[in-house]
Known about the structure:
The protein has 122 residues and is an alpha+beta fold. Helix content is 20%, strand content 35%. It has helices at residues 50-59, 83-96; strands spanning 2-5, 8-11, 35-43, 64-69, 75-81, 101-110, 118-120.
Amino acid sequence: MKQTIANFEVSAVIARHRPPTALSLDSPWGFGMSIRYTITFTGHVQGVGFRYAAVNVAAGHDVTGWVRNEPDGSVRCVAEGRREELDRFVAAVKQAMQGNIREASIESGEATGEFEGFVVRR
């Protein structure tokens, strides 16, 4: 048995394999599932209210995770949610702190579902 779902061919053989615990949008097992972004912001991002701005932005998006200052002067943010929502969240943080961010690098991976809410970590 095969069916095509949004350009993915899914066969009955998938049923014999246990899907990962968190699924990405690119997964043939499901769409709209959570993924994780680890974002590193560089520039003049510490001592300017960046972490609290990120928490305020997160409140308007369906994301969970945390944000913290790093010893190297950057700010790291780990956020989980649907890819589209994470992209909107990152864009909104960039907009809110546009004069301070030199670069934002994003690594994506599997979500763990370990977070409740979005907080500042120290």
